[in-house]
Amino acid sequence: MSRRRVIAIVRKELRDYRRNRYMIVTMGVIPAIFLAQPLVSILNLPASASVPLSRTHELLYLLGIPALVPSVIAASSVVSERERGTLEPVLTTPISREEFLLAKALAPLLPSVLISYLVYGIFVVAIELFAHPGVAPALLHAPEVIAQVLFTPLLASWSIWVGIAISTRTSDVRAAQQLSVLGNLPLVALTTLISLDVIHPTLSLALGFGAGLLLIDRLGWRVVSAMFDRERLITGTR
Q1: How far is 9 from 19, CA to CA, in rounded Å?
Q2: Reported pTM
């Protein structure tokens, strides 16, 4: 494993993101959608709503951001290079498939996690400043803040491996992105059900879910590497 080759690919990917208006819009629009609705709803709540709010888990809804944003970015990671004709020169270098895929995963992980934390911070500051008295303390539970910090990179990693796996098997960017979003909708549904208390969050559930995500994220790299057919990608139809 060459750290130098991995970092080189990551830097190239981040430069491509900055030049791609669609990527920038995607990184901004999806978090804005997740932020706007609950924020408007909570800022309109009266102070008397603080008691029932203390028994809910509204902020866990924001875990849908790391489940969706990186999936759209990762889904274009391989197929877009095939369309541009830039994949073949990279794959004919000494870089291994594990190095290549790790770099392709790290590139969307970094901005996605930062954006998720930023949106969460904006949400917390907004309700602290503008919500009615008692609403913010009722919403900000220490275990949920910890869950937001810990589960954001785990959900983003899983979302990325799903997106990259689809990207290596499709030949159209939009189809890959749509399939990736569909593949990660169960994660969004799960976080939404937990935030609505349809599935009651407990310590054992959090530990089990976290351990499962850790295992899946680690296996995801190996599984996607096994699916990665260098020869097919070089010689196949773009």
Answers
A1: 16
A2: 0.84
